[in-house]
Specification:
The complex is a heterodimer of chains A (about 325) and B (about 325). By secondary structure, chain A is an alpha/beta fold. Helix content of chain A is about 40%, strand content about 20%. Chain A has helices at about 5-20, 45-50, 60-70, 85-105, 135-140, 150-165, 210-225, 245-255, 270-280, 300-305, 310-325, and strands spanning about 5, 25-30, 55, 75-80, 115-120, 145, 170-175, 180, 195-200, 205-210, 230-235, 235-240, 255-265, 290-295. The radius of gyration of chain A is 20 Å and the shape is globular. Chain B has about 325 residues and is of the alpha/beta class. Chain B has a single domain (about 5-310), classed as Rossmann fold. Chain B is built from eleven helices and seven strands. The N and C termini of chain B lie far apart (about 50 Å). Classes of the chains: A alpha/beta (about 325), B alpha/beta (about 325). At the A-B interface, helix 3 and helix 4 of A face helix 5 and helix 6 of B.
């Protein structure tokens, strides 16, 4: 199977959906000729023109609000939010407008839009360009949240997101754009609410999101050399969440670590860990652990930044303790 | 005032009816609150009828509006029925939003009302986006974005006006200047010239007496026709006044607004009286005919209120429905 980068996968997904449905359009900063600073969207404006690939002023609330209104009236907009940190700017339009319109209208108005943004630290981009804020949006009823962990998921989830009639927010890890993975040439979609068992194992379950899947794989390799078999579950979407696959895994292994790049406290790991505790309590041989980014604003200095996120060694160490019963 | 002609008289009478419908609806909604029958709060539009009616009478059903927290007037002016509106205000199943939106989120998309909004200025993006859809789909639909003088403080408004001007979107930004943003006078909240804000983006801006429904309507008809041809966006500043407080519970309000000022507007600048005087003077309708109109509407509204009071709430099973669209 051919291998393409995550950037190419996103580009393909959007192009395919824009060919399929004339109502799909994309707006954001520097999305047309520049193809975004990450160059993910390069070439789209050549095929679809500036009526459908729209460069906006630096007005995040404005163009997000525009997308909500366009979505309510027959368009299927994709909003490109350059950095996930800018979620702070668009919260009213996403949380108070997009997420609630279907419910507040008694089911009569839809907001079929996609907000495409990113997360992930260790790029030396400092505190205001390195945050992983997806937990904020998971907390809001009415939104769907997708977290691709490779080029394959990036393509399949993006296509599903564009066809979904709800507001969907997709977070891509900004450090993964040049990473390749096998991606079929034939069309495929990844349904929401279906986790992927990335690796089978019997001793401990790692539930990991986005680039933490690669961190978990690194840890699993280390542990395999020590005779510990880790199972890796990639939820792929946080809302809706495939609880059944996660719970079945933990029932099998009796131990779990949840790994996510949001901050350690009050985040995604807490939610998943709580659900595991509720539903697999009597099958657990060790406390469920959470590993997130340190509860600090992400520092600039490389000497400090790399300390703030989970690593394969760090995950392996916690897994050993869980298996040995020394937690 | 415009010259009366056979063609116009029907339109004038319709405007009269619509303004009376709004005034009567609001009087009854206020009563529902004062008699403890209404859950939550609501925001009266009484006094501003000329704005909603003058504008909406220049729109087709397929044109769109976005509304504000003070949205009953827009909703009625755009074609909504009393029964479903009262049901929505009381949280009943037959409301426009199945009781799940309430007064501040009332929407009637069959009539092109994309919804009231509880966030000041919150629907400015939605209106502009609806205009974007209309332009790219070639529907020729025009969108009117209603907002108040208070919303002139919200950055979102300027962001979307900028984009509407850049992309020549068919949207009319209608600023209902009723002189008060909640409990504060507009002079303490908006610096400089109000229309200059739109002009800064190269948007043609107009100012009109909101109490003169015919003047509002004539201006809007012109701007709507131009917007359909792609000459938009436009900005209209409509000077008006809300008779009631910010919300129905804002009763002791002399500390921010004098009773004398309120009296002045009610007695000398009432939009329904002004149009009524014009209709009788031009012999388009007699005083008696206008009385009949008002009595009919009063009766219609009372029927609708009683219906809504007796109507059912949505079933409890509905609490977690419609979070997601299929």
């Amino acid at each position: 199977m051919r291998e393409i980068t995550l950037a190419q996968a996103v580009n393909e997904a959007i192009a395919e959906e824009m060919r399929r449905d004339q109502n799909v359009l994309l707006l954001g900063e520097d999305v047309a000729e520049a193809g975004t600073p990450f160059k993910v969207l390069s070439g789209l404006v050549d095929e679809f023109g500036t009526d459908r690939i729209i460069d906006t002023p630096i007005s995040e609330p404005g163009f997000t609000g525009l997308a909500v209104g366009a979505a309510m009236t027959g368009s299927r907009p994709i909003v490109d939010l350059m950095f996930g940190d800018f979620l702070t700017l668009v919260m009213d339009q996403i949380v108070n407008q997009a997420a609630k319109t279907h419910y507040m209208s008694g089911g009569k108005l839809n907001v079929p839009m996609v907000l495409r943004t990113n997360m992930g630290a260790t790029r030396r981009s400092a505190a205001q360009h390195s945050q992983s804020l997806h937990a904020w949006l998971c907390h809001i009823p009415g939104l769907k949240i997708a977290m691709p962990s490779s080029a394959y998921e990036a393509k399949g989830l993006m296509k599903t997101a564009i066809r979904d009639n709800n507001p969907v927010v997709i977070f891509e890890d900004k450090l993964m754009y040049q990473e390749k993975a096998p991606v079929p040439e034939e069309e495929f979609l990844i349904p929401f609410g279906e986790a992927n068992i990335k690796r089978a194992g019997r001793d401990i379950s790692f539930v990991a999101t986005s680039s933490m899947v690669q961190v978990a794989e690194g840890a699993a390799e280390i542990l395999a050399g020590e005779g510990i078999e880790a199972e890796i579950i990639d939820p792929r979407t946080l809302v809706p969440l495939d609880e059944d696959t996660i719970i079945a895994s933990v029932r099998k292994t009796s131990r779990a670590i949840v790994i996510d790049e949001g901050h350690q406290s009050f985040g995604v790991t807490a939610e998943i860990a709580a659900r595991i505790s509720e539903k697999a309590f009597y099958d657990l041989d060790a406390p469920v652990q959470r590993m997130g980014a340190m509860d600090v604003p992400i520092p600039f200095s490389p000497a400090l930044e790399d300390l703030t996120v989970p690593t394969p060694d760090g995950v392996a160490e916690r897994a050993r303790a869980a298996v040995k019963g020394t937690l | 005032m415009a010259r009366a002609s056979k063609k116009n008289t029907e339109a004038y009478l319709r405007m009269y009816r619509q303004m009376v419908r709004i005034r009567t609806f609001e009087d009854n909604a206020n009563q529902l609150y004062l008699s403890g029958k209404m859950p939550g709060l609501t925001h009266m539009y009484s006094g501003e009828e000329g704005v909603a009616v003058g504008i909406c009478e220049a729109l087709e059903t397929t044109d769109r509006i976005t509304s504000t927290h003070r949205g009953h007037g827009h909703c009625i002016a755009k074609g909504a029925e009393f029964k479903q509106m009262f049901c929505e205000l009381l949280g009943k199943e037959e409301g426009y939003c199945r009781g799940k939106g309430g007064s501040m989120h009332i929407a009637d998309q069959d009539n092109g009302n994309l919804g009231a909004n509880a966030i000041v200025g919150g629907s400015a993006g939605i209106a502009t986006g609806a205009a974007l859809s209309a332009k790219r789909l070639g529907t020729k639909a025009v969108t009117v974005c209603f907002f108040g003088d208070g919303a002139l403080g919200q950055g979102l408004l300027y962001e979307v006006m900028n984009m509407a001007a850049l992309w020549k979107l068919p949207v009319i930004y209608a600023c209902e200047n009723n002189l008060y943003g909640e409990y504060t006078h507009v002079s303490e909240m908006a610096a400089g010239e109000l229309t200059a804000r739109a002009k800064a983006f190269g948007i043609e801006a107009f100012e009109v007496d909101g109490q003169n429904v015919l003047a509002v309507n004539t201006l809007t008809q012109d701007l709507v026709a131009r917007a359909r041809k792609g000459e938009g966006p436009f900005f209209v500043l409509l000077n008006t006044y809300r008779y009631n407080g910010h919300h129905v519970g804002d009763i002791d309000r002399a500390y921010y607004r004098s009773k004398e000022e309120e009296q002045e507007w009610k007695e000398n600048r009432d939009p329904i009286t002004i149009l009524g005087d014009f209709l009788t003077k031009e012999k388009i309708a007699s005083g008696k005919e206008l009385d009949t109109i008002r009595d009919e509407i009063k009766s219609d509204v009372e029927t609708a209120v009683n219906y809504a009071i007796e109507a059912s709430y949505p079933p409890t099973s509905e609490v977690d429905q419609h979070v997601y669209a299929a």
